[in-house]
Structures are given as C-alpha cells and as structure tokens.
Write a structure and sequence with these properties.
This protein is α+β, with helices and mostly antiparallel strands. It contains 3 helices and 4 strands. The protein has helices spanning 15-29, 59-66, 74-80; strands at residues 2-9, 35-42, 49-56, 86-89. The N and C termini lie close together (5 Å).
Length: 90
Amino acid sequence: MYVTVVNVHVKPEHVVDFVDSIRANHEGSVREPGNLRFDVLQSIEDPSRFILYEAYRDEASAKAHKETATTPPGATRRQTGWPSASRGQV
C-alpha cells in the first residue's frame, strides 16, 4: 500500500472554494483504479485546516492519480496555500 498524507492550511478567504475543489477531487479519486481510500478531514478548531489521507494499492497508482483531471491544478494549490505532502509506503 502507498499512502500520502497531506496537511493543508487554506487561506481563510478560500475555504469554500477549497471545499468545492477537494470534493470534486475526492469523488473522482475514489473511482480511480488502485485507490483504496481517500479521506478529507476538516479541523473543528480551525476550519481552514485539513488533512487528506490517500491510500493506493501501489506507488504507480498514486502517481497515476496525480496525472488525472481530478487533481487540482497548480493555480488552485497556490491560491489555497497547499503545502507539500508526506508520502510513504506501507
């Protein structure tokens, strides 16, 4: 299994846009071959903070995910303040 955990701190003025974008990303991602899990968690204490937990069968499936239309483009990432992800194989 190949897991990516992404900690996201969204600019407060973009939380609604981010939620819309990540919802579309989630809905497409869970249909991808090799996807085992794609969770989006929003902090209760700070609604501008999210954790994305993505599990794929293998590294190739995870890489294929990043090339899909459901992965937000760089402009969306910059706008919302997406940081880099932590990746690992289990």
